[in-house]
């Protein structure tokens, strides 16, 4: 394959895959294609495989996970199907090639791949083959050795795909939750509630939002991140939702409450939008989503001109002024904030007078 692409002056990148039989030609310096030669697995450890190249198409098909993934298409349109994958595809069945347990033990990530492809192919939510589920339950602990990034890559597609609610519940029933960054007893009721609530919102939905509904606490969000190696945005959104979801309808009752939340340190507007979506606040969500928050009119230099010294308190002063600004639906001007509200903010942030007993006494000899 390398000779073929080299002869056509096609550049190949990412040579790390060559030992597994995969090369990545870059066509017209615009698009990458992964091309893999035929191979068989000589040795597997549940994560990685030592491979040997072959020219036998059936041997290559035999190492595939699912029958629907073991078919080949010739240049003349001929389908080569050694394990009845075409028939399974026609009947919308998701079946492992050969013994499910053997296929799973070759790469435990195939457990989650099974559920992902089930969501893509199956007609019914719960038409699983019981022998397949038995093999999954018996080998689920193998997922403990799979990297969090690979697990999250599969879960992201499962939780927003077809039959997502039923598939996640099946994953939990099979005892896979702890290996997927979830608590031993996920919050199933909250997950079901969210699945219903999201029907009133336009897709796409963020996978991390659905995963967060299965958590019971902020600590669970931290553990999920440690297991799945979430992106910074996903990590912070999971923490934000678990920290604030119980305050909706108690501390947060008006639209301006969510405006104020938007201007808090380390918070972005999208976090608040996702919180409203999570809690099924469609009217507030639509209002906030359509809002373009103007630039905050007060700067640090303006505070300096008003006699505020540069110190750690400067950030607190700006935050308090932003909250007042948000309470006004972002209508107050810089002059109004500085003339009317800055003195009150400064007064509220004054340090309490220290009692003599707490002061360091200067002694004389």
TrEMBL record:
<dbReference type="GO" id="GO:0016779">
    <property type="term" value="F:nucleotidyltransferase activity"/>
</dbReference>
<dbReference type="GO" id="GO:0001680">
    <property type="term" value="P:tRNA 3'-terminal CCA addition"/>
</dbReference>
<dbReference type="Pfam" id="PF01743">
    <property type="entry name" value="PolyA_pol"/>
</dbReference>
<comment type="similarity">
    <text>Belongs to the tRNA nucleotidyltransferase/poly(A) polymerase family.</text>
</comment>
<dbReference type="GO" id="GO:1990180">
    <property type="term" value="P:mitochondrial tRNA 3'-end processing"/>
</dbReference>
<keyword id="KW-0547">Nucleotide-binding</keyword>
<keyword id="KW-0460">Magnesium</keyword>
<dbReference type="GO" id="GO:0046872">
    <property type="term" value="F:metal ion binding"/>
</dbReference>
<dbReference type="Pfam" id="PF12627">
    <property type="entry name" value="PolyA_pol_RNAbd"/>
</dbReference>
<keyword id="KW-0548">Nucleotidyltransferase</keyword>
<dbReference type="InterPro" id="IPR032828">
    <property type="entry name" value="PolyA_RNA-bd"/>
</dbReference>
<dbReference type="InterPro" id="IPR050264">
    <property type="entry name" value="Bact_CCA-adding_enz_type3_sf"/>
</dbReference>
<keyword id="KW-0808">Transferase</keyword>
<feature type="domain" description="Poly A polymerase head">
    <location>
        <begin position="2"/>
        <end position="94"/>
    </location>
</feature>
<keyword id="KW-0819">tRNA processing</keyword>
<keyword id="KW-0694">RNA-binding</keyword>
<dbReference type="GO" id="GO:0005739">
    <property type="term" value="C:mitochondrion"/>
</dbReference>
<protein>
    <submittedName>
        <fullName>Poly A polymerase</fullName>
    </submittedName>
</protein>
<keyword id="KW-0479">Metal-binding</keyword>
<dbReference type="GO" id="GO:0000049">
    <property type="term" value="F:tRNA binding"/>
</dbReference>
<dbReference type="GO" id="GO:0000166">
    <property type="term" value="F:nucleotide binding"/>
</dbReference>
<dbReference type="InterPro" id="IPR002646">
    <property type="entry name" value="PolA_pol_head_dom"/>
</dbReference>
<dbReference type="InterPro" id="IPR043519">
    <property type="entry name" value="NT_sf"/>
</dbReference>
<feature type="domain" description="tRNA nucleotidyltransferase/poly(A) polymerase RNA and SrmB- binding">
    <location>
        <begin position="129"/>
        <end position="179"/>
    </location>
</feature>
